[in-house]
Amino acid sequence: MDSALRCPVCRAGFRGTTRCSRCGADLTRLMTLLVTARHYRNKARKAICLRKFEEARALSTSAQKIHATQAGKRLCLLTSWLAYRQRALG
Ligand SMILES: [Zn+2]
C-alpha cells in the first residue's frame, strides 16, 4: 500500500487494513477508494493494449482524481499523449 497515506483521524501510517492500528478508526472507505483507483488503472492498462486510448485516458484520469500517485500521474500523461496522437492521426 501507499506509505504516504495516513489515518484521517490520528495521522498514523496506513497499513492496508480496515481498522487503524493506532486509534481503531474504520478505514473501510479509504480502502474502497484505493481499490477503486487501482481497478480503474488496471482497466486503463487493458484499454491501452486494445488501442482504446481515449477510454484509457478517461480511466486513468478518474483513478488519479480518486487517489493521486506518481505512477498514476505518469499513466495519465501516457494515455493523454496516446489519445491525442490517435485523434490527430485518425
Ligand atoms: Zn488512526
Question: What this model shows, in words?
Answer:
- The chain is elongated and about 55 Å long.
- With 90 residues, the chain is mostly helical.
- The protein has one domain.
- It is built from three helices and no strands.
- The relative contact order is 0.13.
- Zinc ion binds next to loops.
Task: Estimate the global geometry from the Cα principal axes.
Answer: elongated
What is the CA–CA distance across the termini?
A: 39 Å
Whole-number count of domains: 1
Ligands in the structure?
Answer: zinc ion
Give the percentage of residues in beta strands: under 5%
Largest sheet: none
pLDDT averaged residue by residue: 94
The tally of beta strands, per DSSP, is: 0
Helices and strands, in N-to-C order?
HHH
Outline of the structure:
The protein contains three helices and no strands. The protein is mainly alpha-helical and 90 residues long. Residues 7, 9-10, 12, 20, 22-23, 25 line the site of zinc ion.
Give the topology:
Blueprint lengths: L27 H22 L3 H14 L3 H20 L1
Helix pairs in contact: 1-2, 2-3
Bound molecules: zinc ion.
Give structural attributes.
90 residues, 62% helix, 0% strand, elongated, binds zinc ion, mainly alpha
